[in-house]
Design a protein that fits this description.
heterodimer, A: mainly alpha, globular, B: about 450 residues, alpha/beta
């Protein structure tokens, strides 16, 4: 594929116009703020500064959210009102229930695994000689996109008949130990677990780094005092380390929950939602864009939103407490 | 007190005005006529294209599910047309056509022309008012070039949206003539003979059939072709039409029986999956690789469309006495030979003159002729000489498609609403091969039919 600058010119020009327009808007706002009367300045200034953000939020978030909610009560082509049919479909059809079940498995397992793997790793490498190397190694997968990771792991799980050379790492290990090659991604519900491994592989590094920093933040006096009192390593971990970094653990778990609820790329790349591995975001895309069933897609989106909201609220409150 | 000093304020204003000016200055170059207008070339080669007019400097974008080699061949085929009319044709092939065309149309960024392989999808866009009706010229070309059957597939509520482009015949079974000769097997003419042959081959220690269903987002479609072919034979063409339009339920006993007939082959460990492993390997085998074990003697039969000629390893000779060849998938009665096929339709989201010119050119007899000279290609258009075909299967397909006595039916899953045809039918078939039973899968597909 060749990249022709002349052919891309219109897009580049659009980009430039966009940047210029943005600067003009910022300039106008700053000037307005500047010119605003001194009295009750805080109010007027706040209003002027907030307006663009509020306008953009309503265009980009509130209006689509309202529209999606309305669509979720309409038929696939968005022509008729169907009441709660789409929601009824979501909670009764076995296929849709499988999607909900899978999402539940993901949301329960991923934050738990990511946090515990990250915590274990952080504690283990803490203050060892090769700490920074170990942390960089576990953090590396973070640099790989979910799609990239999905493709890598699809190769790891690849299947070839037992009379052929295995191209998948996992099956090669199985064969080397005298086993039969397996179709890892085809057996439900274990295939969901094999997909979860990929997510944990990517995210564990994040957890390690955050938790490791928190562990380092524990005041040395406390650790010393515990040591002098003769705390065993287990007591040290459960009585001192864990309570001291509680808020960091919560932050990791909460961010992981949200990331997991939105999960789309890994499932899409590795199985496309086949073999009962679909999750809400993937099914939403299928229904809305591939099958032309916007109603069902919107219903799934609304449900996803409803699931994420309490976690977000919890996280915000948590942050406030930390402060 | 001001937030900004006087100089700051001046810089801010001057800076942004300056940038805005630069931007608009750049924008004005956009409308300059592009240099090197091909319209000026008036060589003899261009005589054939004068009727499409001069569209110097215009661009037509085409979006399609056809990629890679086939896409290159398309671009090569219409290059002279584009050059002589002075227009530029930008082509984009995608593996996620079904979803992305919706995204682009909804996002207000549709292509000028899209090649729809599914009349069901085309109908959805037509009903949503996104497509432009075909011009009178295109309609005329379509009337003269295709049987009314074909025109019907891209007609929605009496409006004609675009002519067919390529076509394929799906009712073929690929095999190796050399292998058949060596083992003394003969080409079957009835379903019973086919099953006898299958058992004979299985007894000889070779897995008779090889199948591949994996096709990215569209995984499962080759199995839907199997079911369609058998329904067409078992329930008859009228029954097939009823099934496609959901007058015959998806879980009707007749459909269940037809599916089980397919299942007797595809779900039998003794019969599949030559060269790839057990039954379950079918769903993880790419459809492009599905038939390749035939060339290695690891399986004997592969039911796949005429276009599979593209996927044989390089150097494989497609001929009656070559490395691979195909026979018609038999039914119960050798006298009746219904044909299952498919094709693309050229529909437009814009009705600018240059877009209509491209549509007209693609609907003409010249385009398929040019394309066929390059490499394997099949069209159902009348007036295109089958002798131009690159291999005997293409030639046979063209003769079948052009023969007025042929009972032709379009790929059923492509005619059904996308929720079924591009969704639950594909997915259901994958689950079915992966172990679910026929009734459960057909009940599931039937329940997903959009209510309207």
């Amino acid at each position: 594929m060749d990249f022709d600058f002349a052919a891309e010119q219109p897009k580049l020009v659009q980009l430039l116009i966009g940047v210029a327009a943005f600067l003009v808007v910022v300039a106008v706002i700053l000037l307005l703020v500047d010119r605003a009367p001194m009295r009750r300045r805080a109010w007027t200034h706040a209003t002027i500064l907030l307006l663009p953000a509020v306008a953009l939020l309503s265009i980009g978030l509130v209006v689509p959210a309202v529209r999606t909610t309305l669509l979720s009560f309409m038929s696939g082509d968005g022509m008729r009102w169907v009441g709660l049919d789409n929601y009824a479909w979501m909670f009764t059809q076995p296929e849709a229930l499988t999607v909900l079940r899978n999402t539940l498995i993901w949301v329960l397992l991923v934050p738990l695994l990511v946090t515990s793997v990250g915590l274990l790793y952080a504690v283990m490498v803490d203050r060892t000689r090769f700490e920074s190397l170990a942390k960089s190694l576990v953090f590396l997968p973070m640099a790989i996109s979910f799609v990239g990771a999905g493709i890598i792991w699809r190769f790891v799980y690849a299947y070839r008949a037992d009379d052929q050379d295995q191209i998948g790492l996992l099956n090669q290990l199985v064969v080397a130990m005298g086993g039969e090659p397996q179709q890892w991604l085809q057996e439900s519900p274990t295939n969901t677990l094999f997909l979860i491994v990929v997510m944990v592989w990517i995210q564990a590094g994040f957890a390690t780094v955050v938790l490791s920093a928190a562990i380092k933040g524990i005041p040395a006096e406390i650790v010393e005092a515990a040591r002098l009192d003769g705390a065993s390593p287990a007591q040290m971990f459960f009585r001192v380390t864990l309570p001291s970094i509680r808020s960091a653990v919560v932050v990791v778990a909460v961010t992981q929950s949200i990331a997991t609820l939105k999960l789309f790329d890994i499932v899409r790349t590795m199985t496309g939602g086949q073999f009962d591995t679909s999750v809400i975001a993937n099914e939403m895309y299928n229904q809305a864009f591939r099958y032309g069933e916007t109603g069902k897609g919107a219903a799934l989106a609304v449900f996803l939103f409803a699931l994420v909201t309490p976690i977000v609220i919890y996280q915000i409150r948590q942050r406030r407490e930390v402060r | 007190m001001s937030l900004l000093s006087r100089t700051n304020r001046v810089t801010l204003v001057a800076g942004s005005i300056g940038l805005a000016l630069v931007a608009t200055a750049c924008a004005s170059t956009e409308n300059k006529p592009s240099a090197g207008g091909g319209g000026s070339s008036t060589s003899a080669d261009c005589a054939a294209f004068t009727k499409y007019g001069n569209h110097a400097g215009k661009t037509v974008s085409i979006y399609s599910p056809i990629r890679d080699t086939e896409a290159d061949l398309f671009e090569q085929a219409w290059k002279p047309f584009a050059k002589c009319t002075g227009m530029k044709i930008t082509y984009e092939g995608t593996g996620e056509f079904e979803a992305q065309i919706q995204v682009r149309a909804d996002g207000g960024n549709p292509p000028d022309i899209a090649f729809f392989p599914q009349p069901g999808l085309l109908e959805r866009f037509a009903k949503a008012g996104k497509l432009k009706p075909a011009s009178a010229e295109v309609k005329k070309l379509a009337d003269e070039g295709w049987s009314p059957d074909w025109a019907k597939y891209s007609t929605v509520d009496g409006t004609f949206y675009g002519a067919p482009l390529g076509a394929s015949v799906k009712s073929f079974v690929w095999y190796s003539p050399g292998m058949f000769k060596e083992k003394g097997w003969t080409v079957p003419t009835t379903w019973d003979e086919l099953m006898t042959l299958t058992n004979t081959i299985a007894a000889s220690g070779v897995k008779p059939w090889c199948v591949g269903l994996e096709s990215g987002d569209a995984t499962g479609w080759p199995a839907t072709d199997w079911i369609e072919d058998i329904i067409l034979r078992e329930v008859g063409p009228e029954g097939y039409d009823d099934w496609v339009s959901h007058k015959l339920a998806f879980n009707d006993p007749k459909v269940v029986a037809a599916a089980d007939k397919v299942g007797a082959i595809l779900k039998n460990e003794k019969f599949v999956n030559g060269g790839y492993g057990p039954v379950k390997s079918i769903v993880s085998t790419a459809f492009q690789e599905g038939g390749v074990p035939i060339t290695q003697g690891k399986c004997a039969l592969h039911r796949q469309a005429s276009f599979y000629a593209n996927f044989w390893p390089e150097g494989t000779k497609v001929a009656e006495d070559g490395d691979v060849f195909a026979f018609y998938l038999p039914g119960n009665d050798p006298a009746k030979k219904p044909v299952l096929g498919a094709g693309e339709f050229v529909a437009a989201f814009a009705d600018r003159p240059e877009v209509q010119a491209v549509q007209a050119y693609l609907a003409s007899a010249e385009f398929p002729a040019t394309r066929m000279k390059l490499a394997t290609y099949v069209t159902a258009r009348k007036g295109v000489d089958p002798a131009l075909a690159q291999n005997p299967i293409d030639k046979l397909s063209m003769e079948m498609l052009q023969n007025p006595d042929t009972v032709f039916r379009f790929d059923g899953s492509d005619l059904m609403p996308a929720a079924v045809g591009a969704g639950t039918f594909w997915k259901g078939m994958t689950d079915w091969i992966n172990g679910k039973d026929t009734k459960t899968v057909l009940d599931y597909i039937d329940a997903s039919w959009p209510k309207s």
